[in-house]
């Protein structure tokens, strides 16, 4: 059983000024100025520190989860989902409120957590089992199942820092699921795996649920949430806005009960609250009608321009990104992307175009994946933007709803034809 009472988590965000230093003397002088400024203006007095602000990732969240519940946690990017899982996994301490958990917890959060990068796959399996309180004999009984599920037999004695992101996630999920914790916490990290592996994971989680284990599952794939979970929680801006039966919570979310229906632009400062990690930081994303004059409503005829600005923090030999356009129920409409060679750290802008008369009516969202050397994930952002495509008035022709996710207006030739003979 999990009990959460008035849970809040606050971060202090620093807004750094863009300063350039030409020498060590400049660095020392800048640090001295900051110290002197703090001495002159003590904390809590005056007009406050303009370079710091409070950001509440969670605010007064309360709920109970019973043993054996399979709970989906949904909400837009920045809603507080990942922060909640980090608090429940004891990775992050809450600022206020409390959490009571009965049972062993295994967590699979963002790629890179849970394993020691210098240890081999074999060593990490035993390390994670020991952390869960299992004996070597207990771990050994599950060892072959874990390796077979993860499909990493050839790389068992290789340090996991050399694994691709897909291999890493496969092994991490296999360890978390097979070592039989009472509570299994899974973040959107499963999106890294291929479709076949995701299907295996869903089957394993369903099996764990039938065995009476408690599952907390964060995903933007609402179909997966509906298939797996008997309950759901919806977060928005750090607050719990809906909880209960999965179908009810998902329906409310899709009809706007979990926040704004459309998010056509998002801007993040280059701070803790921005979307990203140590590899990539998304600074801004927007979807803009690609027209000289726009009347304010995106229709099936509107050409669209997608722009996103981001900071690449590491050098990459082969850098690529892909954008997945999804319906709000989790169906992938299409995937597009680009790749580039020998990319250095810096701020970049990428722009893509969707022609008019291509998308069908409905609400759409986007997932964005950054990778190096094709297979190694740098960062994945779910539900980056949300936009709605409206129908147009039609005086003739087909007047009902068009089936399918797209309705392209293709060029067709029509001409008389005479059969020979």
Automatic annotation (TrEMBL):
GO molecular function, one term: ATP hydrolysis activity
InterPro entries cross-referenced by the UniProt entry: AAA+_ATPase, ABC_transporter-like_ATP-bd, ABC_transpr_TagH-like, Bact_Polysacc_Export_ATP-bd, P-loop_NTPase
SMART domains, alphabetized: AAA (SM00382)
PROSITE patterns, per the entry: ABC_TRANSPORTER_2
Keywords, sorted A to Z: ATP-binding, Cell membrane, Membrane, Nucleotide-binding, Transport
Domain ABC transporter: 35-262
Segments traversing the membrane: none
Cellular-component GO terms for this entry: membrane
CDD domains, sorted: ABC_KpsT_Wzt
Gene3D superfamilies: P-loop containing nucleotide triphosphate hydrolases
Superkingdom, natural source: Bacteria
Pfam families: ABC_tran
Family of the protein in this entry: Belongs to the ABC transporter superfamily.
PANTHER family in UniProt: TEICHOIC ACIDS EXPORT ATP-BINDING PROTEIN TAGH
Protein name: ATP-binding cassette domain-containing protein
